Task: inverse folding
């Protein structure tokens, strides 16, 4: 499945409705999600370094030109991260951690709402957790999941 096909299929839910994923559709979404999340994690780490450098220079009250340059780069970085976050929201999943690239996909399991859980560099969606739980409560997906 290519990027454009995946994007078209992922927007099926329509405006105002939250898309529910099956295990199969969540794994298909990884074609796009993996690329976006990798970009988010890399850019977020870069942004944190820029902020740290800016704060150090501001505390020393030195190099106002560099502080201004960093401020502008940080602003552009925040805008880019917001666009990437919106792209993930458009897919229907939720970015839970900007550092590790943890993403949850809304799903239904045994008649209740749950999250299918995936983290950057995992080969596929292989975990889930309750709606009101987090990453640390995730469980391996068993063959009867569905």
Result:
């Amino acid at each position: 499945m290519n990027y454009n096909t995946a994007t078209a299929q992922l927007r099926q839910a329509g405006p105002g409705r939250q898309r529910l994923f099956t295990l199969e559709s969540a794994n298909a979404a990884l074609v796009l999600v993996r690329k976006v999340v990798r970009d988010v994690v890399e850019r977020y780490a870069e942004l944190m370094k820029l902020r740290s450098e800016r704060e150090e220079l501001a505390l020393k009250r030195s190099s106002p030109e560099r502080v201004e340059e960093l401020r502008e780069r940080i602003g552009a970085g925040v805008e880019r991260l917001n666009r990437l976050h919106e792209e993930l929201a458009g897919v229907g999943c939720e970015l839970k951690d900007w550092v590790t690239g943890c993403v949850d996909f809304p799903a239904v399991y045994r008649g209740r709402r749950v999250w299918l859980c995936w983290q950057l560099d995992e080969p596929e969606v292989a975990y889930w957790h309750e709606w009101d739980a987090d990453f640390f409560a995730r469980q391996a997906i068993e063959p009867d999941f569905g």
Remarks:
- The mean pLDDT is 88.
- Residues 21-140 form one domain.
- The helical segments are 3-10, 23-60, 64-91.
- The two ends are 22 Å apart (CA to CA).
